[in-house]
# Entry
Amino acid sequence: MLLIKNLIKRYGKFTALDNLNLEIQKGEIFGFVGPNGAGKTTTMRIISGLLKADSGVVNVDGMDAVTNPRELKSKIGYMPDFFGVYDNLKALEYMEFYASIYGITGNKAKQLCLELMDMVRLSDKADSYVDEMSRGMKQRLCLARSLVHDPELLVLDEPAAGLDPRARVEMKEIVKELHNQGKTILISSHILPELAQMCTNIGIIEKGKMVVSGTVEEILSARGTASPIIMKFTAGQDRAVEILKQNSLVRNIIIRDNSISILFKGNETEEAEILASMIQNGAMLSSFAREESNLESLFLQITAGDEQEVSE
Ligand SMILES: Nc1ncnc2c1ncn2[C@@H]1O[C@H](COP(=O)(O)OP(=O)(O)OP(=O)(O)O)[C@@H](O)[C@H]1O
Ligand SMILES: [Mg+2]
# Structure
């Protein structure tokens, strides 16, 4: 669906994208992760045709971005990382304005815009002034706006930035819904655990280069890192530690007051076996679960700079 090869973008003497490579297959949700200034927005603006690269290939559905800019724009829906002023427009008028840019007008436009507003949970805001809407609502409206021409590829630049936890969950649900409708999605974010849950693939960018990309599992195993398992005990913790120490699949046992964290290299069956053996030996567990936020620590390890090696 999207192929980026050796993309280079300079702002004056500064190289923002340094031979960036990125590939997204149809139907993927690709999480684009990187620290501030890594080049995410620059990449997304180039994909969406708003910014010109110095060199490299951007190909959407087999079409080159440089030679087919119009066709490309019809396939891509772009949601920018910040929005402008709305000049006293009501939400529905704003949507209809964007529809008109794509030649959709009249009743057809109204119906389409209402449908899209419904999809982003704004159906009751058609007559609200955009300037008076909350940040979360504006962000959802902006997402709806990027959908008016029914694009195949959605490019979402930090759609959940600045939203409260509840609004973030809502945004995530909408993105998932769009994925279920068959959209291919490129989404950037700083909120890594959230991306891990939602995305099929992850690419980590640093200083204009793609440092790693692949499925979340691929990235984790390639780096030799597994999510730690956290256990909480109400009794029998000492005995459980003895059992864990004897198991060759267990590494890095970290003991806290009422919990233990381990790195476990086994599969699910082996995980179940070790849990059973602790219980059989008198340990009382109130919890035994994989830590969800491991992508966060992976991200920190990868982007920590050259001096820090990822240790197993
Ligand atoms: N118009 C511009 N002129 C000069 N430098 C720019 C311009 N736009 C971006 N840059 C620089 O290019 C680099 C990449 O910026 P970009 O906005 O793509 O990063 P980002 O990954 O989106 O960061 P963030 O997470 O903060 O949104 C940064 O160092 C930034 O300062
Ligand atoms: Mg950005």
Notes: The chain has two domains: 2-85+139-221, 229-291. The chain is about 35% helix and 30% strand. The two ends are 35 Å apart (CA to CA).
